Amino acid sequence: MQILDAQKENKIVPLFRLGFRVFFLGGALFSCLAMLVWLLSLRGMALLPGVSNPIWWHAHEMIFGFGLAIIAGFVLTAMQNWTGIPGVRGWPLALVSGLWLLPRLLMPLRGELNDLVIVLDLLWLPLVAGFLARPVIQVKQWRNLFFAPLLMFMMLLNALSYYAAFSHNWLLAERVFTTAVLAIAALITVMGGRVIPFFTARATGTDKPDAIPALEKLALGSIWLATLGWLMLPRTSLFNGLLALVLVIAAVTHFVRLSRWNNKLTKDIPLLWVLHIGYLFVPLGLLAMAAAILNWGITVSLASHWLTAGAMGTVILGMIARVSLGHSGRPLELKKPMVIAFMLVIIAGLVRALLPMLAPGLTRMAYDVSALAWVMAFGLFCRIYWPILTQPRADGRPG
């Protein structure tokens, strides 16, 4: 890096030197706060004075507030590696992260139907999509361009969720939120297929298994088809059966896909086993979703938590722990409390998704235990990674 570039980099607050910093830390902090508010709201405390439907708020904020923040941080950071063009930083990054944060802070006070909240919340994802598309188009790396339309699709789902709240159409809200959850699960499978086998091979000194083209097309194609089908297909017995079949095909193919990634070699490497276990939640969640659409003794809400509290929470915590170390110039070595955080987030997912299925009478306890385990897991991340994400790289390089 040139001296001039170094001087320019040093003038930027470290938190805004690359997307992973502000969005990983902000998303993790927000998830802790939002989960605590949700837990206390269930206990009858009036902590959301402006919100007319706290259930809508909880689902919306954990998907579009927490989940999309982490995704934005990841792709804004990864795009620099993929294209070789410096990532967004400085005031543009501060602007887009501020546009993400303001609706999170305003919604509990002004409510989900407030015009300012809605406008701000619909602005930040198109900005992220633009930041991603520009370098991809510049270097003609079309493989990674799909992130931009995916983020625009999520923005449209976000807009639909506000429309559902405005019209009090809670069936539409559930359909939109579930579609968004399936889309995030599909993104996990896309990125997981790229990085999990690679990370595993490199850390264990083994060969990365060759992908089977037919399996990859069937696994990824079926989960994206299920995502679109959940949003667009009418709810008739015929279409529900077809959608359930697609979900089962997706689940089976992702089980097979995961089984080929040398899982047994990861048992002593927390940064690996957390990703493998997190990915396992995806096919389990897809099977639960198939059962839910067929009304086989499980609700859509409960089934979706295999993908949210389970897959999304576990994979996100594993990825942000690893990416934050690598992109801050530090060795991939975990402190023991972070391993405890991994176990806590897995417990959060299992308790929230499995316990109400096995013992419906303990559902309330499942909410409490899962929420507290989540808060402790992401709270530990915030405590450990605060200095890592708010200070310059350990090796002195930019980013």
Automatic annotation (TrEMBL):
Top-level taxon: Bacteria
ATP-binding keyword on record: no
Record has NAD as a keyword: no
Key words, A-Z: Membrane, Transmembrane, Transmembrane helix
Signal peptide: none
Pfam families: NnrS (PF05940)
InterPro entries the UniProt entry points to: NnrS
Protein name per the record: NnrS family protein
